[in-house]
Amino acid sequence: xxxxxxxxxxxxxxxxxxxxxxxxxxxxxxxxxxxxxxxxxxxxxxxxxxxxxxxxxxxxxxxxxxxxxxxxxxxxxxxxxxxxxxxxxxxxxxxxxxxxxxxxxxxxxxxxxxxxxxxxxxxxxxxxxxxxxxxxxxxxxxxxxxxxxxxxxxxxxxxxxxxxxxxxxxxxxxxxxxxxxxxxxxxxxxxxxxxxxxxxxxxxxxxxxxxxxxxxxxxxxxxxxxxxxxxxxxxxxxxxxxxxxxxxxxxxxxxxxxxxxxxxxxxxxxxxxxxxxxxxxxxxxxxxxxxxxxxxxxxxxxxxxxxxxxxxxxxxxxxxxx
Length: 322
Fold this sequence. Notes:
The protein is an alpha/beta fold. 37% of the residues lie in helices and 27% in strands. It has helices at 6-14, 28-37, 52-62, 76-84, 97-105, 117-125, 141-149, 165-172, 188-192, 196-211, 225-239, 277-286; strands spanning 16-20, 42-46, 67-71, 89-92, 110-114, 130-133, 156-159, 180-182, 214-221, 243-245, 249-252, 256-259, 268-274, 291-299, 302-312, 315-321.
């Protein structure tokens, strides 16, 4: 993630920002809990309904661990109201200088909406590092965003509008994109009907799509380079795949690794691949797993692999950037 405001950095690590229009404030807390249980610890409550203020107050009091923002903020007065109700960040559909300047003067994270290069340049002039790209799909989608974002390498975008799970991963893989806003898992009819289990399931599925967690390979401690080479050749022959050598191991294909020397884990390790290792780290930490920072490996200046403080039947576990 970039060196942005800590609140906005958390949004980037979460990756998905549910955008909510809520009609009954009594649904706010069970909605927030459903999102949390589904692996999405943030929410944007929009000022599109009369229940927005009460909903924000109830979430702030009842689910304080939820990173809550206020959306569709059009005036300075709404900024003040949102913050008073517990909002930690502000989102506006357009780039309103008064709103942005007020937020910056009061150290309130703000992501105003932009849709053109001129909007982006105004945002840069104001000192912003993250903006909302809205309405994303109606403006031309990812190809348009990549085109207008190309000259502004330091600016990150949160595309919102028309994005669903089928588009999520393609947006998030763009180096221009900080996170994605969407409402497919928090549709008004689901909220009004109290279908919070369905919201939790949809949230879990969205997080799964984003992270793409999978078994990348199994590493086995072989005891020596000679034994690792022998076992890789044997296994490769059985599987009809080539074996190859790296500095620390021999591989049979891509899924079985034989370590030349002992590594974490009595027997070896289980490598879990992911689309986004920093988001996966944040996800596992929220689940209660500890990361072992001293095991962090980087590639091209970015996190590439790290072990979790967990043992599965004598196998250590590490995350790896797929």
